[in-house]
Amino acid sequence: MDKIIFNESPFLHIIEREGYFFLHMARTAGRLVAIVPYRQNAGKYEYLARVEICPAHFPANTTKSEMQPRLYSITGGVKPDEDFRSTAARELKEESGYEVNAAALIDLGQVYPSKQEDTIAQLYSVDLSSVQQQTIEGDGSVWEQGAGVQWVSFAEGLKICDPLFVTAMVRVREQLGV
Question: Where are the alpha helices (DSSP H) in the chain?
Fold first, then answer.
């Protein structure tokens, strides 16, 4: 039987199950998408990373002005009226400026991002080799101001400290036979 230990936030809850404590992303019912698009450039594959500041990845008492952007996968929470695939297409457009048909997304399966949460992340990729980038819309939040995207090589992608990025990149390479 689950016992909610903390539920004063619309974003997350802390739950105890049989003596095990974990986080639940309440706002998205524990459903997340991560997208790592690719393209061919000069005969080599490149992967699109999100350049943004994630406050959770800096020491306590670090001010926003002291935080430097880092590379991540393009992610987003699944809204109650959306499915994983349409969420991925929406987030890709919102956070990268690339618009694709949801049917073009390559399903890379699901992962649990961490043993400390019950969130399930659905991974996708898509070939952007012939897609023109538009203006990055963002969602208007303060943390998305100044965010952008950057193409990286496979070797650079392996150094990104985001397990969703690395997993999706490796899985799409497997599907491409690279």
Answer: 84-96, 154-158, 163-176
